[in-house]
């Protein structure tokens, strides 16, 4: 039986950009709150959209195939809402992860740091890349290639972490 994982918008976009969503779905049943779904599908609200991004196409396909489940948290804890941006996908994803004691994959720096400080199980795209490398599903060259694709949208800390790992 696969483990469950909550994902945030930034993690999903990175995962799809570097073509690792299938690897992720082999390991986890994916759950996300409605707010994250709204963020992922935001472009669908544009009246004159002539191009649908890959992350939206894949999301819609997987949701249609029931490989992604949308669940909202029952409550947003006050201590969380005072530290994470109000009405953000991160706020709902972290609340859902905390409520269900499930890992949340989140790539934004401050929310990820909040999770670590508050003992909420968390991972990033960097953690996932390292896991895949340790499991011999990808190699260092693959990691470098994938990081090059998403480096502009990664935090300096996450880039530093992966560069440190690569140079081992």
Question: How is this structure best described in words?
Answer:
The chain has 168 residues and is an alpha/beta fold. Helices cover 54% and strands 11% of the residues. It has a single domain, classed as 5'-nuclease (Rossmann fold), CATH 3.40.50. It is built from 10 helices and 5 strands. The chain has a 5-stranded parallel β-sheet. The radius of gyration is 16 Å and the shape is globular. The model has no long low-confidence stretch (mean pLDDT 90).
Total count of helical runs of at least 4 residues: 10
Mean pLDDT: 90
Order of helices and strands: EHHEHHEHHEHEHHH
**Could you list the spans in which at least 5 consecutive residues all have pLDDT below 50?**
none
The class by helix and strand makeup works out as alpha/beta
CATH C-level name:
Alpha Beta
Number of strands: 5
**How many structural domains can be distinguished in the coordinates?**
1
CATH superfamily: 5'-nuclease
User: What is the fold named in CATH at topology level?
Assistant: Rossmann fold
Biggest sheet strand line-up: 3-2-1-4-5
Characterize the main sheet: 5 strands, parallel
Determine the N-to-C terminus distance.
Answer: 33 Å
Q: Strand fraction band?
A: 5-15%
Architecture per CATH nomenclature, i.e. the level-2 architecture: 3-Layer(aba) Sandwich
Proportion of helical residues:
40-55%
Radius of gyration: 16 Å
Shape annotation? globular
């Amino acid at each position: 039986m696969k483990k469950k994982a909550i994902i945030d918008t930034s993690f999903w976009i990175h995962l799809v950009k570097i073509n690792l969503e299938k690897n992720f779905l082999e390991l986890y049943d994916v759950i996300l709150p409605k707010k994250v779904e709204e963020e992922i599908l935001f472009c669908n609200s544009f009246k004159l959209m002539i191009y649908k991004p890959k992350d939206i196409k894949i999301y819609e396909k997987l949701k249609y195939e029931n490989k992604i489940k949308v669940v909202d948290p029952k409550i947003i804890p006050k201590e969380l809402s005072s530290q994470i941006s109000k009405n953000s996908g991160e706020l709902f994803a972290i609340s859902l992860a905390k409520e269900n004691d499930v890992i949340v994959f989140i790539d934004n720096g401050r929310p990820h740091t909040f999770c670590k400080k508050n003992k909420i199980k968390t991972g990033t795209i960097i953690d996932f890349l390292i896991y895949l490398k340790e499991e011999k599903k990808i190699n260092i060259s693959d990691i470098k290639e994938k990081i090059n694709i998403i480096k502009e949208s990664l935090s300096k800390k996450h880039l530093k972490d992966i560069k440190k790992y690569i140079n081992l």
